[in-house]
Amino acid sequence: MKRIVFGVVSLVLLGIEIMIGLYASGWIRNYFGDVLVVILIYTLCRTISPDKPSVWYVFPTAVLVFAFVVEFLQLWGFCDRLGITNKLLRIIIGTGFSVADLVSYIAGIIPCYFVEYRIFKNRKYRRGEME
Fold first, then answer.
1. Within 13 Å of residue 75, how many CA atoms lie on the same side as its CB?
2. 70 located within any domain
3. Cβ–Cβ under 8 Å, residues 35 and 104
4. Are the C-beta atoms of 10 and 44 separated by less than 8 Å?
5. Residues 60-91: pLDDT tens digits?
6. pLDDT over 70 for what percent of the chain?
7. 131 lies in a domain?
8. Measured between alpha carbons, how far is 65 from 102 in angstroms, rounded to an integer?
9. How many structural domains is the chain composed of?
10. Rounded CA gap, 16 and 33, in Å?
11. pTM value?
12. Which of 97, 110, 16, 3 lies closest to 63, judged by CA?
């Protein structure tokens, strides 16, 4: 059931991200879109992964590391070095490094940590493992 909820949230977030990409500008596109994109990646991971990690912070941390790696690849000039010319792919990957993007990713992943902690805590409680 949780996977279905995460799937629906993923679709809603994807729709919002597409709308931001098409119509928004300024801080909404530059920062809010980055906050939402890590939440979108997190919900997608929770949707497709049948595994339940043994520690609550695995999924959000993996998503944050992935976002940081992509951002630092932008600093390296990933798209240009690999000769990626497709406009949509360049938008998805990104072409410009920004410390503000890293801060946005951190801001976006914080609610994911809270959600993951609640899920983990509730699962332990149902199994009678609470202190």
1. 10
2. yes
3. yes
4. yes
5. 999 999 999 999 999 999 999 999 999 888 88
6. 92
7. no
8. 10
9. 1
10. 9
11. 0.87
12. 110
- Cβ burial of 50 (10 Å; 0-12, 13-18, 19+) is exposed
Q: 11 to each of 7, 41, 63, 69, how far by Cα in Å?
A: 6, 11, 18, 24
Give the CA radius of gyration of the chain: 16
DSSP the chain: -HHHHHHHHHHHHHHHHHHHHHH--HHIIIIIHHHHHHHHHHHHHHHH-----SSTTHHHHHHHHHHHHHHHHHHHTHHHHHT---HHHHHHH-S---HHHHHHHHHHHHHHHHHHHHHHHHHHHHTT---
Which residue is it, tokens 């990690």? 53
Q: What is the dihedral of CA 25, 89, 106, 60, to 10 degrees?
A: 140
CA end-to-end span of the chain: 27
* pLDDT value of residue 47: 93
Amino acid (1-letter code) at residue 70: V
Write out the residue range of the structural domain in which residue 7 sits. Answer: 2-126
Cβ–Cβ < 8 Å for 107, 35? yes
Residue 32 lies in a domain: yes
